[in-house]
Amino acid sequence: MNQEQLEAVMGLIIHSGNAKSDAMEAISAAKDRDFKQAKERMKSAEAAIVEAHHAQTTMLTNEAQGIAADITLLTIHSQDHLMTAIAFCDLAKEIIAIHQRIEQDET
Prior knowledge:
Layout: H1 3-31, H2 35-64, H3 73-106
Helix pairs in contact: 1-2, 1-3, 2-3
């Protein structure tokens, strides 16, 4: 694995992890009825997902140009991290919406 490939893989892991952490913080804020903070954390999570997608696009572009990354546990882990983060962010949006609905029903 060359340096550019390693940087792309690590970018996937880092940005995906940041997205998942931000989404978790958003859920926590929603539980505390701080929907403004929840929205801000989800916006940050979505930005991190975009950054992760940029890293993934680098890997895909390289492969399309005949410079495929070695399939290692690290590359598989990076893709798994991204898919988990995307699913987590989708679920976080739904959980926040449920908390908002409960808040509205209580008022």
